[in-house]
Amino acid sequence: MKINMLFSNKNYCCASGYLLFFFGAWSLWWSFYAIWLKTKIGLTGEELGLLYSVNQFFSMIFMIGYGILQDKLGVKKRLIWLMGIILILSGPFLIYIYEPLLSTHFMAGMFLGAIFFGLGFLAGCGLIESFVEKLSRMFSFEFGTARLWGSVGYAVGTFVGGIFFSINPHINFWCVSALGLCFLLINIISPSSTSSATTQQSNDVNFHDFMTIFKDKQFWLFVLFVVGTWSFYNIYDQQMFPVFYAGLFDNPDVGSRVYGYLNSFQVILEGAGMALVPFLINRIGPKYSLILGGVIMTCRILGSALFTDVYVISFIKMLHAIEVPLFVLSVFKFSIANFDKRLSSTIYLVGFNIAGSLGIILLSLPIGRLFDKVGYHSIFFIISSAVAAMVLLGLLTLSKKRQPSAPPLPVEGA
Predict the structure, then answer these.
(1) Given its phi and psi angles, is residue 74 left (phi above 0), alpha (psi -120 to 50 degrees) or beta?
(2) Is 335 left (phi over 0), alpha (psi -120 to 50) or beta?
(3) Which of 2, 107, 271, 374 has the most neighbouring CB atoms within 10 Å?
(4) pTM
(5) In a domain, 405, yes or no
(6) Which intervals hold domain Major facilitator superfamily (MFS) profile (predicted)?
(7) Number of independent structural domains in the chain
(8) Which secondary-structure segment (H or E) carries 59?
(9) CA-to-CA distance for 129 and 141, rounded, in angstroms?
């Protein structure tokens, strides 16, 4: 009955469609990005770390603008149109501009790609998620039940992408553009921008409201926790693990294909987690859910350092399916419980995504250099130790609040 009620909610269906097609398009190239850069383009570990750092730097700049603008727009779709256009242009950009420039003029390709991907996928991911989270509160559905469709899209994209990538990566890139058309179609039929609920919503946030967040000590403790856990974990998961896993096979092409299958299965489990994890978070609270997510991160990274058997490593990767829903959904609930919920996009994009990006900017290059010297297993030990230390600090400092903060009362005469 509840499932029927969900699918009778057109706003829920459109919100799910946004996430399905965005994450599907993203996974078609992002899941194989590090493998493509290392094996097809031929980048070194240091170049890969530098490229990721520059990507994250530009995405951080765009996230600030996206967060502020979307909090002022509420659930209006102006920025969502921009995302659709970028998705459609991704295929031609990757094939005809980005790949040739990286091979012949690395610095030019790196900076141009950082602007394009920062404006689109890397900053757009948080924008789409925070936009859907606003829709979920306005139109009465659980964010996790919509976010699971993002995981489904990512799983299908990775599964199909693994097959296409072993044939020709350009097939993946054209499929990204095709899904961009589907994304724009969802935006055309979505009713949110013209609904009465939207026009009645007050988005009179001002500069003082935004500055209040940055004066809050708990916000900076939250940011520190994100940098020390999520940033390290993403360097491990995005820059190192795909190549590490493919290297466990005698034929790297076979490894890339198996990785695609494994990633698809993991993301399917992740989607189920998106629907189920909110019950756990509501029971133990946002703080302890974040701590539990950090513990799972540590276990996965440490497991990669301790084992070399492909079956054991494959099993360890499945921990990602628990950790991502737990961490991402806890971030939203922690933000709403501790800060002004009208600023949810800014808090999510700045406090979570930008903090994570800043950590990647600062850490990718030195970790890449260290990796070139010590190899996978030693660097995995180092990363897991750093994450474990930050989990302990978060346990001691993060707020235990569970209930949303009351919005500030209007000032008379203002």
Answers:
(1) left
(2) alpha
(3) 271
(4) 0.75
(5) no
(6) 10-402
(7) 1
(8) helix 45-73
(9) 14
